């Protein structure tokens, strides 16, 4: 496990950790293509792959020299709610997509599967990016950990955004992904827990999957408003952080 918990090369360790959930996603995609799965079977396969990724992440946490709580697997700090404005900006941006309308083509079972999938994705990505990766990078300072973990997260999600057709929409989506990672990192540092960002991440993906996303002017406008809110919220949280080095894992 020293490959993933190296205080001498924290960036290399963080990059390797960031690749692990991506490899599980690629494996699920390959299996789905080879076996010619339908849409529902693809979703189930991806969910199972991410569950395996979560188990691997928990194994890495267990094999480290620190407790589960040190990786944010604990209840949020009781005094942190005012510092993060009770997460109200996040609630606002997640209500906006409903103005696009619901995807009425989805059946009740599909909605259920999408809910489970979104929850698993939220747990998986937050465990790796805001649990393991941030903790490893903190060996080089808190500011370094927040910035680099956010960049790694944004880069990983930029490839998904590039599949879009509207260049302006793609640019805003990439900025949104970077801000999403930054705010998640800031919230984890302030609350000492990854639980709030797991909930936000899962909720965000679920809402995105059950609402319409047709690339319309309204959709572009809503994304822009969300991005502006995240930018302001990210700046607010940044001013609340106290930068310092923490205990090493190695």
Characterization of this structure:
Helix content is 68%, strand content 0%. With 250 residues, it is mostly helical. The chain has one domain (10-238).
Mean pLDDT across every amino acid position: 91
Described by the principal axes of the CA atoms, the overall outline is: globular
Number of helices: 8
Tally of domains: 1
Q: Quote the distance from N terminus to C terminus.
A: 10 Å
Largest sheet: none
* Structure summary, number of beta strands: 0
* Rounded Rg: 18 Å
User: β content, as a range?
Assistant: under 5%
Low-confidence stretches: none
Helical percentage: 55-70%
What order do the helices and strands follow? HHHHHHHH
* Class derived from helix and strand content: mainly alpha
Give me the secondary-structure topology.
Layout: H1 10-34, H2 39-63, H3 88-95, H4 108-137, H5 142-161, H6 167-191, H7 195-210, H8 217-238
Helix pairs in contact: 1-2, 1-4, 1-5, 2-4, 3-8, 4-5, 4-6, 4-7, 5-6, 6-8
Keyword list:
8 helices, single chain, globular, 250 residues
Quick summary:
This protein is mainly alpha-helical. The chain contains eight helices and no strands. The radius of gyration is 18 Å and the shape is globular.
């Amino acid at each position: 496990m020293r490959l993933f918990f190296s205080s001498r090369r924290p960036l290399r360790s963080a990059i390797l950790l960031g690749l692990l959930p991506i490899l599980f996603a690629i494996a699920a995609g390959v299996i789905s293509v080879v076996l010619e799965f339908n849409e529902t079977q693809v979703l189930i396969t991806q969910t199972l792959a991410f569950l395996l990724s979560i188990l691997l992440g928990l194994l890495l946490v267990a094999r480290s020299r620190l407790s589960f709580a040190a990786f944010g697997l604990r209840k949020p700090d009781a005094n942190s709610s005012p510092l993060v404005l009770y997460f109200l900006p996040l609630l606002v941006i997640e209500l906006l997509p409903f103005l696009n309308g619901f995807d009425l083509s989805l059946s009740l079972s599909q909605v259920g599967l999408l809910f489970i999938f979104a929850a698993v994705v939220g747990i998986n990505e937050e465990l790796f990016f805001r649990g393991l990766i941030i903790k490893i990078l903190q060996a080089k300072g808190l500011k370094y950990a927040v910035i680099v973990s956010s960049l790694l997260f944004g880069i990983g999600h930029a490839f998904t955004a590039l599949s879009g057709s509207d260049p302006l929409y793609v640019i805003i989506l990439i900025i949104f992904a970077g801000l999403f990672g930054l705010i998640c990192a800031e919230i984890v540092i302030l609350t000492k827990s990854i639980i709030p960002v797991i909930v936000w991440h899962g909720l965000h993906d679920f809402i995105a999957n059950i609402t319409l996303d047709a690339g319309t002017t309204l959709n572009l406008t809503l994304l822009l408003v969300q991005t502006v809110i995240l930018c302001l919220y990210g700046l607010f949280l940044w001013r609340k952080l106290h930068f310092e080095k923490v205990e090493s894992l190695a």
